[in-house]
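I hope you will forgive my troubling you with a question about protein structure. Here, with my thanks, is the record as I have it:
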Amino acid sequence: MKGSGDWSGFLRGFLEATGADEFPAGLALLDKEGRIFYANREMREWLLEGDVGEDPEEGPRLLDLMPPDCRLAAEGSLREAAESGGFSYREALEIKREDGELFFNLSVFPLALPGEAPSGFVVAVQDITRMMRLRKAYGQASSYIDQLVNSLNDGIYAMDLEGRFNFCNQRMLEMLGMSEEEFLSSSPKDVVHPDDRPLVKEMLRRRREGEKVTFEVRLRRSDGSFLPAEIRSAPLVEEGAQVGIVSVAHDITERKRLEEEVRRSRLDLERAYEELSVLDKMKSDFIAIASHELRTPLSIIKGYAEAFLYGELGELTETQREKLELVNSRADQMTRIINDLLDITRLEEGRLVGERRPAPIREIIDSTAAEFEQMARRRSIRLSTQVQEGLPPVLVDVWRVHQVLENLVSNAIKFTPEGGEAGIIATLRPASRMVEVAVFDTGPGIPRSEQEKLFDKFYQMDATSTRSAGGLGLGLAICKGIVEAHGGSIWVESEKGKGSFFKFTLPLADGPRESQEKKPDSEDMTASTSPSSNSG
């Protein structure tokens, strides 16, 4: 090889013969002046946008074709190769275009015999735009992930399978009050309470076996204080093999504080319940003792009053009779109050209802109606009963069910104006195997706002008729307790100015289909019998 003519054709032929046009990089042959006399397809598409001739003197100069952005770098690389006689390399050269940035690596190889100046150059250009874009995207993603991890409110850390820390986020360092260097040089046992070290050791063993674990520890801060944390750990897997452990540490200081408050509140409630139980027992004992002590003088008062009224102790004047009737009436009222207090105490203790036996509901209704017939007649009130034929017997404590009817019928007569109507209706509800009993009146009705409170203990409607009758407002509460103790339910249906229906259900002797009967829906209510349809 004595000149460019000696080797230019040879190199060109060699490159063409080896398929240089298919190379993924651009290749060009330059003479010593930097003119191109051969370029493969990749180089032509990248720089020349055409072909070059075989005469080096007619070829374009490489530097003239280079974009201005990288022309100085290419010139420096050619000069460096010429002066050193060795390989020259420039990495990640950038070209700015309207459609975006392009990046490439430039390699220059001098063509020279030992001891001689280069007679030409081989130039290689490799497009690395895609790689640079991927690298940039990876860098952005890594930055986003770092920001995300460091912005979390939980500590995150990783360790190898030997339990050596190799990563943590900023929050983890804040929780421990450590620097990154201090944390990474620590071991798991160094950052927990001494009493928690056996647990940490066991959890590490389980995590090495690929198990996900959750546990609570007390993290030891650099100032010697302790921070309660919940640790959630999972194996770190690469290509199917476990290479480490990643964990999240959640500060549970607030949760522990709330748990302690709940614990203290529970203890306070338990103590309060015990104190209330004692007070409730004292109340029950007081009511029992007071009732017993009141019964004796009341019995004596009532006995003497009735003896005078029946003429056993001599004749009475009209004024004396009126006063004694008032005394007798008030004694009966006090007796009812005492009985109500005793019943509400029994209700609270769960012993109000006694043994239940099968009984015909008609007989209970008829005996109640007969008891109040005179009271209704004196007030010109029509008292009626309507019992469905063939009603099966109910399973009840007869005396207590009679008490419910007494209370409801007494109220119905009390609230019904003269010339009005009150009554008792009994029908079968076969779907639930219950008997429904309704006591109605044609009184003023009950506002909807009052209806939900009627069955509360000590509740009385603010009406003259209720206040004048006396009492403590326990009657309906006792009725509710008796009915529910039988497995039934009690409710009221009323509209102001249209009277009221007090309804309750009782189980058949062969048992209801549900343990607790529910209040009927609107369809059931519309099917109820109205007062005008009753017969005496």
Remarks:
- The first helix runs from residue 4 to 17.
- The chain is about 45% helix and 25% strand.
